[in-house]
Design a protein that fits this description.
single chain, 504 residues, alpha+beta, Beta-Lactamase, Alpha-Beta Plaits, six-stranded antiparallel beta sheet, 22% strand, globular
């Protein structure tokens, strides 16, 4: 199918938006298990109507008044942000059975300040306390809902227009559901060959943590003269000007006025392209980046085509926010926040995957079970802040002592597990001894207090020490406990007859 073949009038966007909505809710479920999420949108009668979502279980009422106290509180915010509410104080506003209103919920506004278009109601599990709630997560989820809502409105608005807009709409729909930045640039290139002529698309990002530089993030087309990951100062170039002003630019070599530079000062003299157009990802000063389209030959550009690509670049900016959100929230769901190693759930998932691969291809697999010696005494003597420091720095030592292909995770408390794939037991013993020695020699220092610690490590090997995840961890745990009984600060390989502490 070519772009012009799309039957826009019959394009059904609901499955696309429903899938995106489900993905966002799945992310919340992965972080806060047993959470219930409800989506209300504003109707013409100034009431908020409940939308059907996968988690709706008949727990809340179908309509909430625009004048409800908690809604009024949200609307008075200068900048929309999620708030925590106590269910027993607000139950009559949204619960069918107000008597069941225990615990807490999060209300997340959707829209822009002064123009509330809806809200998310997230009812949290009873054991979830306010200090356990990261409102930034809910804000980003709500922002993504807002992005989807705006995209849906734009797409519906332009249905049935000219072929020109129909093609634009079809491509923008593809952009809105692109899975990665590379997918997005591919769609833009496909689109560009139909409208604006260009030979290369470059995605420039302007990170918040290094605002004085921008980075070449992705390239679709010939990479000559550029390299992914290159950074340039935001100074004296067309790309820099677009970032600083939030405005698009057009450069053609035939014009008498020469720029100070395209990407950096003076580079136009060796520039291979006759035409370059840059579209900011957001029309704001010092924005998040620029979409740069380059052509070997000059081509006439219509204002209507510029307007279309301005909208495309805005869609790209919204998509990048979505990609960043998914990546960050996925880290919340898979990474232990203290040690930055895999958490237990993610570790077990990776363990099962690697075990299945080792079984299928007859590969080797070794498991290390690590437990800090007398860690409780550190917490009892110096407090939990020192204990947290020991766990963080121990995790870094473990990470520095193994290969990048190995999989380290926090098993619980002061216990760690490392899955070592495609490595024999002797090589893994050497890595384990490096960890043991490095921790023994390391000084943990905080507030002029210095402590030292040791670690005991047990090692098991697939398949001789176990064929399942549980068997291999149990064997490694038994070997680790044997190391502790022998005084700790050592590595022991599992052998038959060793038993874990739980069985002694």
């Amino acid at each position: 199918m070519v772009l012009a073949d799309i039957d826009l009038a019959n394009l059904d966007l609901k499955p696309i938006l429903k899938t995106q909505t489900s993905n966002l809710i799945d992310i919340l479920h992965s972080i806060y298990t047993e959470i219930n999420v409800y989506f209300f949108i504003l109707e013409k009668d100034n009431s908020f109507i409940l939308e059907e979502l996968p988690t709706n279980k008949g727990q809340v009422i179908d309509s909430v008044s625009f004048e409800a106290s908690v809604i009024v509180k949200i609307q008075t915010q200068k900048e929309f942000s999620s708030i925590i509410i106590q269910n027993h104080e607000n139950a009559e506003l949204f619960l069918k059975n107000p008597g069941a209103g225990r615990g807490y919920s999060v209300i997340s506004p959707i829209g822009n300040s002064g123009a509330l278009s809806g809200f998310l109601l997230s009812i949290l599990p009873l054991d979830c306390k306010p200090e356990d709630i990261d409102l930034d997560i809910f804000n980003k989820i709500a922002n993504s809902f807002s992005t989807n809502s705006v995209a849906s409105t734009l797409l519906e608005k332009y249905k049935g227009r000219s072929n020109h807009l129909s093609v634009m709409l079809e491509v923008n729909t593809h952009l809105n559901i692109a899975a990665t930045k590379i997918d997005f640039l591919y769609e833009i290139s496909r689109f560009g060959k139909y409208f604006l002529h260009f030979d290369r698309a470059v995605l420039i990002l302007h990170p918040e943590d290094t605002p004085e530089y921008f980075i070449v993030d992705s390239i679709e087309g010939d990479e000559t003269g550029l390299q992914q990951g290159m950074s340039y100062p935001v100074f004296n170039s067309l790309v820099s000007r677009s970032i600083i002003t939030g405005q698009y630019f057009i450069f053609k070599k035939s014009h008498e006025e020469l720029p100070e530079g395209i990407y950096r000062t003076g580079d136009y003299e060796e520039y291979d392209y006759a035409q370059v157009i840059g579209f900011p990802l957001e029309k704001v000063k010092n924005g998040p980046g620029v979409l740069v389209l380059e052509s070997h030959n000059e081509h006439p550009t219509k204002q209507s085509e510029i307007s279309i690509f301005e909208m495309v670049s805005q869609s790209l900016g919204a998509a990048l926010t979505r990609f960043s959100l998914y990546e960050r929230l996925n880290n919340y769901a898979t990474i232990d926040t203290l040690t930055h190693l895999y958490n237990l759930r993610a570790l077990k998932q990776r363990f099962e995957e690697e075990l299945a691969r080792a079984s299928r291809y007859q590969n080797s697999l070794v498991v290390l079970f690590l437990d800090l010696d007398k860690f409780k005494s550190i917490n009892d003597t110096y407090g939990h802040l020192m204990g947290d420091l020991v766990l963080r720095e121990t995790s870094q030592i473990i990470r520095d002592s193994i290969r990048t292909s190995d999989i380290p995770g926090r098993y619980g408390g002061e216990e760690f597990v490392v899955i070592m794939v495609n490595a024999d037991a002797d090589a893994c013993m050497a890595s384990a001894r490096r960890i043991c020695s490095a921790i023994h020699d390391h000084q943990y220092e905080m507030n002029e207090i210095v402590v030292q610690n040791k670690i005991s490590i047990g090692l098991s090997e697939f398949p001789q020490d176990g064929e399942t995840m549980q068997e291999l961890i149990q064997s490694a745990d038994a070997a680790m406990y044997t190391a502790k009984r022998q005084g700790g600060n050592q590595v022991v390989k599992y052998s038959k007859g060793m038993v874990p502490k739980s069985q002694t």
